[in-house]
Design goal:
Two copies of one chain form a homodimer. With about 150 residues, the first copy, chain A, is of the alpha+beta class. Chain A contains five helices and five strands. Chain A folds into two domains: about 5-45, Orthogonal Bundle (Arc Repressor Mutant, subunit A), CATH 1.10.10; about 60-140, Alpha-Beta Plaits (2-Layer Sandwich). In chain A, strands 3-4-2-5 form a four-stranded antiparallel beta sheet. The interface between A and B is large, with 64 and 64 residues. β1 of chain A pairs antiparallel with β1 of chain B. Chain A binds a DNA duplex (17 and 17 nucleotides) through α3. Chains A, B: It comes from Pacificitalea manganoxidans.
DNA sequence: ACTGAAACGCCACGCCT
DNA sequence: AGGCGTGGCGTTTCAGT
């Protein structure tokens, strides 16, 4: 499924990741091409799914979401039905920004953004009431040292 | 520092987070307003720093970045100089997408995206050679169940 | 594949209410 | 503060190389 991307494609992606509001002319100049080919390349990468979404990144603190937790989860349940329930719960909860199934003795990790510790507790109570979980460890972020969506291309 | 946001502002943010390429008219229609006020609100939220960045989200796998690790770090060093070195290293490394300083017995957590396990090992070797670290646990993601940049507004 | 040009749409503002 | 109008820019498309 992987798409062939040449050096120009990668330069375009690098520019778009940094600032997607740039005009085609600006991007074209920076990558050493011109408007039309840049436009065609972007369209192709969109169609191929390399470019997924055009979005804005917001300041979580300005929105009053001042607490960030990483939640390590161990479970004793590994049946399909349990997994489906767990997954639906995560998807339905907007405070869950990320969820990964892991290799090793910890089964899942979540990244959760909430207003404060109390809001985290509500989330936690809701979660354990909906699905059976063996063990939960919450890691509280004190400081976001780095946070980027820019992938190295 | 916190900005006052009313219901319309929040609706606009919700729309922009889902698709930032929508026209002002489209957004205006959806939030029950019209072009000029929507434009003014967006400009203000940009200036206030609520809207940080306009970007594209890429498919990491399509770019060949097929491995994602969460790295739990314990250190015995807590001096300013060590922290500065550690921070510079993280900032300089594009494969480090997130880094948080934590409360509790684990000091830091990183999220790292790389091509494969071998690339992770290079990163790991480079990291421990640059800064003294007491204990490292790497959690390997087997499956990304959820990943969103959309904050609940 | 890139160039040039042309058509359209949208944005960014100013003015007015 | 919202509605209206407009000049100019940006996007999208098409013919030509």
């Amino acid at each position: 499924m992987s798409v062939r991307l040449d050096a120009t494609d990668r330069k375009i992606l690098a520019e778009l990741q940094v600032d997607a509001s740039q005009s085609l002319d600006e991007i074209a100049k920076k990558v050493g091409s011109s408007k039309t080919p840049v436009w065609n390349r972007i369209r192709k990468m969109r169609e191929a799914g390399v470019i997924r979404q055009n979005t804005v990144l917001l300041d979580a603190e300005a929105l009053g979401l001042e607490a960030c937790f990483f939640v390590l989860i161990r479970t004793s349940e590994h049946e399909a039905e349990w997994q489906q329930r767990f997954l639906s719960t995560l998807r339905a909860r907007p405070e869950v920004l990320e969820a990964h199934r892991l290799a090793g003795d910890i089964d899942y990790i979540l990244k959760v953004r909430v207003a404060n510790a109390r809001a985290y507790d509500s989330f936690y109570q809701a979660l354990i009431s909906e699905v059976k979980i063996h063990n939960v460890t919450a890691l509280l972020s004190m400081e976001e040292l780095k946070a980027t969506t820019v992938l190295p291309v």
